[in-house]
Structures are given as C-alpha cells and as structure tokens.
Amino acid sequence: MLRLAFAVTFADAETATYQPLPGHDCLPMRVGEPIDPERYPRVGS
Question: Cα–Cα distance between 27 and 44 in angstroms, integer?
C-alpha cells in the first residue's frame, strides 16, 4: 500500500505549491515549488 502525506496550498488553481507534512517529504520537489500540472495533474471534484 502506498501512502502519500503532503498538502497542496494554493490561492487559485494555477498557483498550487508543494508543502509536505513534517517528516513525510516523499516527492522529489522543494518545499514551496510550483506543482507541474503535466507531471501531477489536478483531480477534479
């Protein structure tokens, strides 16, 4: 089972940034780095 623990913060859909939870920096990204929509596409609700 794969478990991801991170939060995505954004002011709008175009400015999402990577914010890992403490101790769970599981993606090869820097904190606050913009999330690439090509690599990590948004999921509609």
Answer: 21
Q: What are the structure tokens assigned to 1, written together?
A: 């089972």
pLDDT in tens, 23-45: 777 778 888 888 777 877 777 65
**Which pTM value belongs to this model?**
0.45
> Residue 20: enclosing H or E segment and its boundaries?
strand 17-20
What is residue 40's three-state secondary structure? coil
Longest dimension (CA), the chain: 31
Q: Which residue has the tokens 């999402």?
A: 16
Q: What's the CA gap between 2 and 14, in Å, rounded?
A: 27
CA distance 45 to 24: 25
